[in-house]
Structure to design on (788 residues):
């Protein structure tokens, strides 16, 4: 097809553009490699990783999780370009060698048909996505909250220009190839296996067909070669970076944070991320794998409630800054440190503390980017190095340091939740079948204590041999770790691992998904290999084996999937199976299972005020609950996490709403009591000299009477008591036991409450320091007070 001069010109053009493009890819690799070594295994089991990447890429299964129509148009472009790798190679050879692929053979006919049809479909897909991005109302998907920090290049419409350039390239590249194919048919005759090219052939005459063939050749292949020079900087680079991201995907769930080496003796300890190169290299790869679809922003609870955080903006800002460094700091790609800190460059301090670590951004991302882990590394830097974090977190940190729980309540009160119940510790029962990990919430929070008390009554009713650690148990450190205080987390976690390794539990069951995640998944990083199960999973086995039987209730029940139970640990069915046993009217929330919406407690948010926004995260979720249960007479919101329960029970939008918020264990206990009497042990320390018998529920008890037994009130935080003053925990007394009348009942402890002065000074609000040397202006929140 090409003359000798044209062949020489094409080869020279290919050499120049190919060399420039190859150098661009090399520099891109150097920028990604500037990140620190990752603590997660990324190259192990390479054949399996490669197969996963191939299947995930070719099926586009992660892309189709959301926006099915948009994903369909995207898939047209993707599959077209995959096949075009072969088409471009064949077309290039046809320009140098006298051969053509005829439709007269089966293979040739299939090739020509696919090339023709996919050319048309690619053009349809590009036009549809261009209309969506620039003209249709859906263009709002690509906008950002006014509070969100944006890189200067984003503000200068770099992303928009890049989208236009990529769209024009695809249209010109594929269009030129279609024109060349049409001109060939005009010269050679119609081909029924190339309907699109045959349609275009009517635009040409046999006299000018050859000229248009040459134009199509240069237009299609020349545009590809020219685009190679721009490719490493365009969003189109995700074609190669996304499959690579699949290859190096994390081998653990999103609930497991990367391990951190705590080398406190180093002159400049690396305990987080201050600059871009402090992030692990796979998270610099994230910036180039990102397809800028903003799906992570769509599901982020912080973004949905008008806060400054946008996971999408974080990744886009990273890419813009990496490209900026490649232009202005040549030494960065050779290991020279960048000058600008991450905070104030790719993320504002306000946004860094708005993350709930719910994992929705990681779950929904088509290319498995990990923006949540960037935020954790930034928090680690701010807490352990800079000492800059919301003031309210200091209270939780101090509580964990002094009393081994974030509530700051005396550790000696850790077993008070079990007053009057048949609960033995591992000192009394060293080899139980089940070790119940109570957790801090169930130990000290009244609402969560109801869950723990319901659970142990169910275990007792089913005849399960169980025990608790009692005062040997301390906080798992989940709050400290999510807040960035890895050092405090390790202090608590190491102590728990040592205790559990000594106890050697057969099975650990937890009512708190955060505890379950820490003990069962994260403790494996520090020598703790334990089998851990959520209480709904264990209760499901008891129901399935017939050890627990329940009758249906009349309430309409809906279930809220906790992030740390569902998305982070994949437990979705067990709670629902239990609810279907105790209610014949179970309805799903619109956002459920892996698409569940956070309650707002995770990521240490429970211990601080929310950042400025349009509404509370818990209000957003509870509004959905109210809409779903509207019209029902008796309404129940079932939960499987103590923090979800507390957040949704106390959210301002609930007010006096009749929706009851209960743990699945509480509801199951009510159902079991409807079926048969459940023995409920009561404390022997009562104000009577008569024998005390265990109270037994009768089948005639009214529904109001079957509520879970109220736990004792939580004692306010106080200083550690000397050992001689510690009051012994009330013991459970079996049925038929008596109380010695000569022993007077112990008076309840009273904690004096200081009067609140109306002249008390207002609590100081936390305000982030401005990142020195940042080229960006950080937008201030509308309500600085909300930063607390």
């Amino acid at each position: 097809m090409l003359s000798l001069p044209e062949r020489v010109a094409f080869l020279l053009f290919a050499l120049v553009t190919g060399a420039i493009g190859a150098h661009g890819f090399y520099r891109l690799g150097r920028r990604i490699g500037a990140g620190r070594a990752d603590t997660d295994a990324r190259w192990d089991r390479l054949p399996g990783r490669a197969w996963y990447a191939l299947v995930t890429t070719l099926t586009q299964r992660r892309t189709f999780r959301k926006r099915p129509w948009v994903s369909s148009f995207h898939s047209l472009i993707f599959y077209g370009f995959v096949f075009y790798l072969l088409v471009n190679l064949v077309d290039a050879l046809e320009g140098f060698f006298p051969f053509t692929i005829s439709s007269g053979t089966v293979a040739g006919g299939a090739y020509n048909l696919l090339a023709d049809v996919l050319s048309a479909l690619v053009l349809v897909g590009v036009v549809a996505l261009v209309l969506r991005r620039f003209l249709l109302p859906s263009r709002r998907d690509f906008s950002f909250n006014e509070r969100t920090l944006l890189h200067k290049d984003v503000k200068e419409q770099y992303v928009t220009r890049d989208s236009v350039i990529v769209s024009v390239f695809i249209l010109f590249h594929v269009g030129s190839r279609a024109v060349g194919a049409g001109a060939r048919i005009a010269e050679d005759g119609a081909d029924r296996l190339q309907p699109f090219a045959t349609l275009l052939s009517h635009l040409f005459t046999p006299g000018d067909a050859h000229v248009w063939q040459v134009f199509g050749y240069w237009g299609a292949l020349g545009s590809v070669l020219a685009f190679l020079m721009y490719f490493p900087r365009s969003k189109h680079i995700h074609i190669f970076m996304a499959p690579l991201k699949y290859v190096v995907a994390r081998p653990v769930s999103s609930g497991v944070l990367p391990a951190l080496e705590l080398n406190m003796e180093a002159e400049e300890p690396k305990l987080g991320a201050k600059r871009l190169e402090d992030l692990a290299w796979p998270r610099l790869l994230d910036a180039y794998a990102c397809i800028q679809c903003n799906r992570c922003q769509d599901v982020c609870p912080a973004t949905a409630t008008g806060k400054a955080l946008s996971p999408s903006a974080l990744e886009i800002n990273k890419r813009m800054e990496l490209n900026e460094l490649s232009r202005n700091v040549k030494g960065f790609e050779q290991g020279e440190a960048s000058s600008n800190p991450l905070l104030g460059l790719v993320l504002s301090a306000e946004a860094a503390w708005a993350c709930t670590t719910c994992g929705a951004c990681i779950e929904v991302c088509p290319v498995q980017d990990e923006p949540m882990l960037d935020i954790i590394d930034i928090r680690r830097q701010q807490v352990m190095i800079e000492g800059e974090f919301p003031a309210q977190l200091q209270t939780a940190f101090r509580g964990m340091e002094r009393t081994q729980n974030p509530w700051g309540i005396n550790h000696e009160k850790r077993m008070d939740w079990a007053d009057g119940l048949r609960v033995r510790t591992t000192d009394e029962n060293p080899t139980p079948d089940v070790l119940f990990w109570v957790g801090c919430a169930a130990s000290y929070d009244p609402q969560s204590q109801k869950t723990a008390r319901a659970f142990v009554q169910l275990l007792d009713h089913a005849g399960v041999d169980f025990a608790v650690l009692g005062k040997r148990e301390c906080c798992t450190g989940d709050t400290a770790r999510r807040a960035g205080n890895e050092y405090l987390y390790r202090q608590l976690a190491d102590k728990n691992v040592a205790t559990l390794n000594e106890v050697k539990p057969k099975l650990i069951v937890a009512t708190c998904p955060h505890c379950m995640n820490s003990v069962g998944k994260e403790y494996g990083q520090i020598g703790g290999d334990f089998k851990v199960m959520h209480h709904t999973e264990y209760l499901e086995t008891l129901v399935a084996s017939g050890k627990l039987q329940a009758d249906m209730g009349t309430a309409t029940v809906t279930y809220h999937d906790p992030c740390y139970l569902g998305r982070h640990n994949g437990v979705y069915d067990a709670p629902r199976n239990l609810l279907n046993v105790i209610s014949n009217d179970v309805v799903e929330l619109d956002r459920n299972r892996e698409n569940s919406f956070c309650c707002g407690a995770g990521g240490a948010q429970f211990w601080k005020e929310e950042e400025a926004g349009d509404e509370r995260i818990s209000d957003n979720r509870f509004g959905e609950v109210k809409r779903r249960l509207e019209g029902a007479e008796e309404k129940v919101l079932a939960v499987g996490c103590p923090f979800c329960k507390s957040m949704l029970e106390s959210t301002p939008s609930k007010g006096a709403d009749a929706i009851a918020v209960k743990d699945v264990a509480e509801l199951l206990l009510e159902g079991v009591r409807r079926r048969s009497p459940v023995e409920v042990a009561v404390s022997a320390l009562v104000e009577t000299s008569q024998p005390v018998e265990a109270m037994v529920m009768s089948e005639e008890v009214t529904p109001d009477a079957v509520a879970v037994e109220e736990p004792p009130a939580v004692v306010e935080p106080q200083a550690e008591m000397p050992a001689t003053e510690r009051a012994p925990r009330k013991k459970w007394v079996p049925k038929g036991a008596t109380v010695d009348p000569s022993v007077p009942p112990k008076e309840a402890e009273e904690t004096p409450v200081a009067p609140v002065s109306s002249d008390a000074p207002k609590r100081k609000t936390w305000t982030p320091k401005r990142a020195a040397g940042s080229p960006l202006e950080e937008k201030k929140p509308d309500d600085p007070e909300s930063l607390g």
User: Anything to note?
Assistant: The longest strand covers residues 635-639. Residues 404-712 form one domain.
